[in-house]
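step: validate -> pass
step: tokenize input -> pass
step: predict -> running
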Amino acid sequence: MGRLSSLTLMRMVVVVTSWVITAVTIETSEARSCSECHSNATCMEDGVATICSCQVGFTGDGLMCVDLDECAISGAHNCSEDSICVNMLGSYLCTCPDGFRLMPGLGCTDVDECAEPGLSRCHALATCINHKGNYSCVCPAGYWGDGWHCECSPGSCGPGLDCVPEGDMLVCVDPCQAHHILDEYWRSSEYGAGYTCDSGLSGWYRFVGQGGVRLAETCVPVLSCNTAAPMWLNGTHPSSDEGIVSRTTCAHWRGHCCLWDAPVQVKACAGYYVYNLTAPPECYLAYCTDPSSVLGTCEECSIDEDCKMDDGTWSCQCKQDSNITDLSHLERRLECGANDIKVSLSKCQLKSLGFEKVFMYLRDSQCSGFIERGDRDWISVVTPARDGPCGTVMTRNETHATYSNTLYLADEIIIRDLNININFACSYPLDMKVSLKTSLQPMVSTLNISVGGTGMFTVRMALFQSPAYTQPYQGSSVTLATEAFLYVGTMLDGGDLSRFALLMTNCYATPSGNATDPLRYFIIQDRCPRTKDSTIQVVENGESPQGRFSVQMFRFAGNYDLVYLHCEVYLCDTVNEKCKPTCSGTRFRSGGIIDQTHVLNLGPITRKNVQAVVSRAASSSLGFLKVWLPLLLLASLTLMSQ
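step: predict -> pass
step: emit ->
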């Protein structure tokens, strides 16, 4: 018996020992209890043995577990190529390096520092270039620096520009826009002696005021301009197309008109000159102005004119580069506005063609041209964008309305046989507003609304035949079949429309033309469409200067043969208000009083084949009256009970 027990014990030891060896290879160990397992191990008991195994992210036999560095083992982590693997206790973390951003499902993606404000440190004048994980900055042509800081150098700027100090840096600027003002009456060459010395002047200056607005171009007598030796421009002023030119200033003293000299730069701007002045070589020397320049300051000169002296007076005269010899080169400008059409011709080019006095008119000669001054000089004529005025003719197809006219030119009031005729036309895509303007007698309702501080606005409501809203019904009434849909459009006109949206708060139908009729069927109530009527579709409301909705008109009309439409509208300030209605739950108000001063009225709308419809409805137990008549009767009873 003893031998048998010993053998059995031996076999058990062998089996257990063999099992333990196998467990080690799969990182598990048998323990007497779970308390022997490592804190980062998992204990599993099956009633026969207690097994310890290391948790995911750790390695060992379960009795001892150490962290597994997934980042150091190929294939042990799923961090993307551009990310950084950071080992954690029992796990790992994928992070993105500088210049990258972690995106769900995409890993680390490049950050475009050039496209996102605040991420680039490039100088304001530099160009930002994005690279993978980084970016670079390049200074513009004419500047030097590392891109984070850019400065120009003298002579490096483009035509008409100069490198001048601005704050703590040098930048390229147009001296016509960046200069100092000298408003000193005593600089006039007609002013007497004094002891002024311009030793403190340096930079770009413009002369203004009663002393004159230009440097004198001739030798100025000594003891003038409130100084001893007056300084004058030895040369002529440039034209504006020459850009910045270099000249010399001279100082008159002891009988020498140019005893001292100093360099100066001059640029002709739009109606004035600017000068890059330096301190004179001696004292007392000061820059002197021509008092005759005050008589013609040329402040009104346009970019196609130069300020030149003519018969002792400065005036605006057309530049030479404005001259043309062929009518085909005549510059024309056509502006197709919402309400007007304007055609303009270059005044200077017309003058070069021999039109000293230009007479311009349309087919109706009462619509004549006028001079329009702006950045350039134009001769313009305006016609309303309507059929008829000024001889304008309107043609229309399925998509556009086109207004055409002819411009006539003559250089005398008496019209010669040979004139210049220029045909012009503006085409407008058909929308609600254009469609109404091009229709003969559209059924339309008009309402004027005054908004404090912004002016008077006009709101119109019209009925359209299709969902394109380009074919308004015409005449004093509309006839519809029972199953027909009606398309209703409202639109805002006049004033500044950029900040206002048109809001339809209540739109309803009545059997009479009285908008206060107690028997009403609401299509839009409290800004939102009636949810129980599936035929109602609000296309646009509170989103722009127009509103649109459609409805199957006689679905709710009951036994009434005539229906009238009414819409309460308001102007909503899109800057300060939330204008687009939210109709998925809470309403703005319930049962509010309708302001009749804001109501547009249209009608009547007549049911087509009234008798046939009524007969069919009376004989059909499933007709729509079976559905809607009880509702209308209930409404009537409710009103009677009140």
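step: describe -> The CA atoms of residues 364 and 390 lie 5 Å apart.
step: cleanup -> pass
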